[in-house]
Amino acid sequence: MLNLRREALLTLKPYEATIGDFPVKLDANESPFDFPREMKERALKILKETPFNRYPGKIVKEVQELLARFSGVSEDMLVLGNGCDEIIQMILLGFGVSRKAVIPVPTFSMYKIAALVTGAQPVEIPLTPGFRLNTREILARAKDKAGVIFICNPNNPTGNLFPYEDIETILEGTRFLVAVDEAYWDFGPTTALKLMEKYERLVVLRTLSKSFGLAGLRIGYAIARPEVAREIQKVRQPYNMDSLSLSVAKVALENPSYREAFIRFISNERERVYRGLSAMKGVIPFESRTNFILFRTEYPARLVWERLKDRGVIVRDFSSLPLLEGCLRVTIGAEEENNAFLIALREVLTELERGRCS
């Protein structure tokens, strides 16, 4: 049976999320706060009036209208997806099969995985040591007539924001479609949308998983020129959005004030955690425009990760990636979670320092 599989699958492994009941879970860039109860009740009211034996109908249009208003674009510029992962696959199916998918790394791992799955040719371009885009090398590898370039901005897992002048340089210098993933844009906040009027080959990806706190419902969307959005729609699966996700999205977009309060909270806590990390000997945090912080430790990152895990704190280890030796990523959580993380990390570092000195 295995000899029937495509060659691209040989290097892939099924995605596995961290499983376990950890008191402090700060590894997946999720919101620490659940959807407000009163808003859940509103969504359930919509759902109770929704026939389960029918595919989603008018609510798709309603959510598109709300998203268009929220994003400041027209409805024909939107493509809804079952999370941004599906949007990434749609873009590759429409514009990347048998073509290059240029990916600045380190970045979100799904770009390369989706490229391999869809039959595109992933081309990884290392960031500079300061986590900047190597625009010259990107353009040198994007000279074909067509292909896709993925840019995560702000970038995951480094947390930094690439200057939009660099993105415009790339748009000017290639004929490739440029997909800017703005999953974390609202923690910045800044956006590439301002470039779309000038460049038809630009697509912006967004999600309701982060600032809206709806990671469990998988709601992503793309913003593109109408003519580009129509091409992406051609590879979209029919009825790809379910009634539950759409019902919750409708309520969330009708009541955006809770999101704004959450963004303010995360921004304040991010600065507090950054200061806490900066005060620790042997730790170098990197400035972030997201809901997480990447930091480097002078001790083996995997060892630090394991000692934190032993204390009930789970973060993400990125130390095996180029440019990220010794690096871990921590999601900004609730205040008590952030306190627990800082206390645990301080204990781990003290423990390791004593072991080194003994």
TrEMBL record:
EC annotation from Swiss-Prot or TrEMBL: 2.6.1.9
Pfam families hit by this protein: Aminotran_1_2
Example GO biological process: L-histidine biosynthetic process
Catalytic reaction list: L-histidinol phosphate + 2-oxoglutarate = 3-(imidazol-4-yl)-2-oxopropyl phosphate + L-glutamate
GO MF term set: histidinol-phosphate transaminase activity; pyridoxal phosphate binding
Cofactor: pyridoxal 5'-phosphate
Pathway: Amino-acid biosynthesis; L-histidine biosynthesis; L-histidine from 5-phospho-alpha-D-ribose 1-diphosphate: step 7/9
Keywords assigned: Amino-acid biosynthesis, Aminotransferase, Histidine biosynthesis, Pyridoxal phosphate, Transferase
N6-(pyridoxal phosphate)lysine modification, residue list: 210
Family matches, as InterPro entries: Aminotrans_II_pyridoxalP_BS, Aminotransferase_I/II_large, HisP_aminotrans, PyrdxlP-dep_Trfase, PyrdxlP-dep_Trfase_major, PyrdxlP-dep_Trfase_small
Tree of life domain: Bacteria
Domain Aminotransferase class I/classII large: 24-339
Membership in a protein family: Belongs to the class-II pyridoxal-phosphate-dependent aminotransferase family. Histidinol-phosphate aminotransferase subfamily.
Subunit structure, interactors included: Homodimer.
UniProt protein name: Histidinol-phosphate aminotransferase
Species: Candidatus Fermentithermobacillus carboniphilus
Taxonomic path: Bacteria, Bacillati, Bacillota, Candidatus Fermentithermobacillia, Candidatus Fermentithermobacillales
Gene this chain is encoded by: hisC
